[in-house]
Specification:
By secondary structure, the protein is an alpha/beta fold. Helices cover 37% and strands 19% of the residues. It has two domains: 3-168 and 357-368, Rossmann fold; 172-354, Glycogen Phosphorylase B (Rossmann fold, 3-Layer(aba) Sandwich). The protein has helices at 17-32, 48-61, 81-89, 104-107, 122-128, 209-214, 218-221, 237-245, 253-256, 260-268, 279-283, 291-298, 326-338, 340-355, 357-368, and strands at 3-7, 36-42, 67-70, 75-78, 93-97, 112-117, 140-143, 162-164, 185-190, 198-200, 203-205, 226-231, 249-251, 272-275, 303-306, 320-323. The strands form three sheets. It has an eight-stranded mixed sheet with strand order 4-3-2-1-5-6-7-8, with helices on both faces. The protein has a six-stranded parallel sheet with strand order 13-12-9-14-15-16, sandwiched between helices. Strands 10-11 form a two-stranded antiparallel sheet. The longest helix is centred in the N-terminal third of the chain and has 16 residues, at 17-32. The termini are close together.
Amino acid sequence: MARILVSGALANKPLSGGEAWVRMSWVRGLRRLGHELCFVEQIEGAEPVNLATFRAAVAALAPDCPVALLGEGRSEVGLTLGEATEWARGADLLVNVSGHLEVEAIKAGPRRRAYVDVDPGFTQIWAEEGAPARLEGHDTYFTVGERIGTAGCSIPTADREWLPLPPPVTLDDWPLAPRPRDGRFTTVATWRSPLGALAHGDSAYEGKHHQWRRLISLPRRSPQRFEIALQIDPADEADEIALKANGWHLTDPREVAGDPLAFRSYVQASAAEFSVAHPVYVETKSGWVSDRTVRYLASGRPALVQDTGIGDRYPTGEGLLTFRSLEEAVAGAEEIAARYQAHSRAARALAVEHFDSDRVLHRFLEAAL
């Protein structure tokens, strides 16, 4: 049994149930394997909504796990700085999601330190360009951009070996759900990604919202119903009006997916996922698979997602379908609707075979330790 410290942004991503699952799946998955866990997050200027988000996620997904939310010079929730530092000193491994943990006294404690990249392309290009990417001080580097470092993927490596890491899903938490009566294709999204645009060398990668704009006529081209739990700023009212005019149903993600249990209910009440990817994931053939997508798959919900080169890593065409154009998106939606039960079974089988946290995290620990 190993003693493992996990760190990532939880309170820092308020009212986002999907983001909570990303971080807490590490805690739940590693504990399933019999390891001793502690979760630590640092935050500047915590507001009530941040504290409530942290407490709700911990209460729902790790109620008996030691945790610490460290503010500016004090503990906001759970262990004190001194207690967290002491816990870390006896740890075998730090799992540092996005390099979130920077408190040197805690970071230096574990015997080994693993960086987990969940923003492939951004992480490596920022590092290449000299911007802070928080890569220093780790022993191993993992990425959900599973084709980084391979032929055909144009994301730089920032002089590091990046080990491919599928997003882990705790299957017991995401059981195969009965077929819903409503045939909605859904996803949870932010219109303008906080990561913004990106440039490297002669390549410029625009914002994710441009991908949605290219596909805006999809509901008019297909008899299926499409819904986005969309966070969109009032400044983008013209886009919101255009989405609705083209048949997209929009809902507030804070209301339908603002905590982990609500997010799970939203996914499992959907028939399938439809989603785009950030241009840097697509144009570089990164091999990125969304952590959200693997939860749809585990629930027996087929996923129709933009092609990021994942066909080199996983079987596509049944359960998990990819598209590169509006026409392919239309065809994919019709294929899922026509053979829903077969695609639903294939979706669950894909999650069991490729994204089960027991398998993914066992392989991760073999490399990290």
